[in-house]
Amino acid sequence: MDYSNLYIFLSTLLAIFTTTTLAFLFSKHKSKSHEKSINLPPGSFGWPIIGETYAFLHNDHEKFIGDRMKKYSSKIFKTKILGERTVVLCGTAGHKFVASNEEKLFAAWRPHSMQKLFRSSYQKAASIIMPKQMEKHVSQAPGFLRAEALVGYVAAMDSMVLDHLKVHWDGKQVVEAHHLTQLLVLTLSAKSFMGLEDHCRIDKLAKLMDTMMPALHTIPVNIPGTAFHRAMKAVPAAREIIQSFVKEKKEVMASTGNKMHDFLSYMIATADPVTGRFMPDNEIADKIMGIVAASFNSPAMTTTFIVKFLGERPDIYDKVRVEQMEILKAKKFGEALNWDDLQKMKYSWNVALEAMRLIPPLQGTFREAAKDFTYEGYTIPKGWKVYWTVSTTTMNPEYFPAPEEFDPTRFEKATPPPYTNIPFGSGPRICPGKDYARLQILSFMHHLVIRFKWELVNPNCRITGGMNPFPVDGLKVRLQAQPSQA
To answer: Are strands 84-89 and 385-389 parallel, antiparallel or unpaired?
Structure first.
């Protein structure tokens, strides 16, 4: 054995390890020294290591934010959540500051749990949709998310919603609304984004996505019994379903030359406009899974809570049904909804807006400070996470009188001030699927109230706290077929 070469190898390895360790410790020391020399926002980092993560994830989200606003500042405070030093910006001024400074002061960031679940979606920019250089190119994809492109998609979605209700709701006495709205949302997104119509695979994907969603904002501890562990087991199964379909679709496109106007076929056929590179199958599958997840949770939650509020408030249900019956009476028998019909659903959309105001499907969004910046006289260091939270405006009586009440007419009486009720975000990072979500929600409401009346089996169904609220028992409802559809 050549001991001299072994000695050189071990010495080199030790030098690399020592240099890396010292550089890391120096960087941490430099960061802490920098933080001590600047005026940080008031607040507390909580317990060592875990910070205030448990209270943030498991307690009432509005209370978590509200208590700290009262204790520290109504505009800004610091905390430590999900392993990160974080500053929380509150109120309309905070919302506006983030929206106005996207790309300048902030970079996209998602919790480590989400990054681990959706691996290649977060290689550099933490985007759940696409790398930044392809966003503009993809936005021009035929039949994608632009409002003008969705005009021709209304009839197809109308038909799919109606088929879903006939299969899963008609003839049933009691249904679990949460599960069924998840299934509907995934059926619609699988068709529009992937061209997938295999109900067996869609049902499996819906169950896997339901397992993954509770782990999007959590501590990424992969041990049995945790939500993150269950999600990490579901991810490979979901990825396999999508990747096998990508392969099938690629083969069909190659043999037929059919471009098939959906997002997946567009990704397969279109090269990156900057590099000229086509995505490999596994990367396409990961991007599609991120897109399906992004289009899954929030619309399903909103639709679920619309069912909840209409079941609790027969007076509001009656107004929605009157509006939808007027639209139905103006159409020929069997004629599908069109874009103009959706524009007439003003009260119904106010119901949806009020549902999203009262129980936001996502309680807030993270960013990362791209450089040191000053806000309200405090300095936020580069690398800190920035969190803006919707409850500081949506539940503020200054903007929404009697905020605890479910009152869709509040949107008729006055337009909410800017940056108060922004369920789809705002600024450059506003949700690209907002028009698609509106189409989906209104199509469902139209057919549901025409076909059924319902009541909640458990009116006191508990809604979880944390960033992604959902009904614990799945929101079971007792159906009664309406005479016109009986």
So the answer is: parallel
pTM of the model: 0.86
Q: Which residues pair with 43 in a beta bridge?
A: 78
Confidence of residue 204 (pLDDT cuts 50, 70, 90): very high
Contacts of 133 (CB under 8 A, 6+ apart): 272, 273, 274
Within 329-417, strands assigned E span 364-369, 373-375, 378-380, 385-389
Nearest in space to 105 (alpha carbons), one of 363, 430, 428, 424: 428
Segment 16-29 mean pLDDT? 46
* Torsion (CA) 86, 92, 96, 99 in degrees, nearest 10: 60
Q: How many CB atoms lie within 10 A of CB 417?
A: 11
Under 8 Å between Cβ of 387 and 86: yes
Q: Using an 8 Å Cβ cutoff, are 202 and 183 in contact?
A: yes
What does each C-alpha distance from 170 to 309, 452, 453 come to in angstroms? 21, 9, 12
CB 445 within 8 A of CB 159: no
Taking a C-beta distance cutoff of 8 angstroms, is the pair 108, 386 a contact?
A: no
β-strand partners of 47: 51
Mean of the pLDDT values across residues 69-77? 95
Q: What is the mean pLDDT of the chain?
A: 85
Token pair listed for 363 = 């309680």
Cβ contacts of residue 32 below 8 Å, gap of 6+? Answer: none
pLDDT tens figures, 139-153: 445 446 677 778 888
- Phi, psi (deg, nearest 5) at residue 47: -75, 155
318-352, pLDDT tens digit by residue?
999 999 999 999 999 989 999 999 999 999 999 99
Are the CB atoms for 214 and 234 separated by under 8 Å? no
Residue type, 35: E
Least confident of 19-28, 247-256, 380-389, 473-482: 19-28
Cβ atoms of 60 and 37 within 8 Å: the answer is no
Residue 263 has pLDDT above 50, yes or no: yes
Average pLDDT over residues 128-132: 41
pLDDT at 36: 62
Query: CA end-to-end span of the chain, whole Å?
Result: 87
448's enclosing H/E stretch is helix 434-451
DSSP H or E segment with residue 453: strand 452-456
**Residue 200, pLDDT score:** 95
Residue 326 DSSP SS3: helix
DSSP 107-174: EE---HHHHHHS-GGGSSS--SS--HHHHHHHHTSTTSSSHHHHGGGHHHHHHHHHHHHHHHTTT-SE
Integer Cα distance of 257 and 267 in angstroms: 15
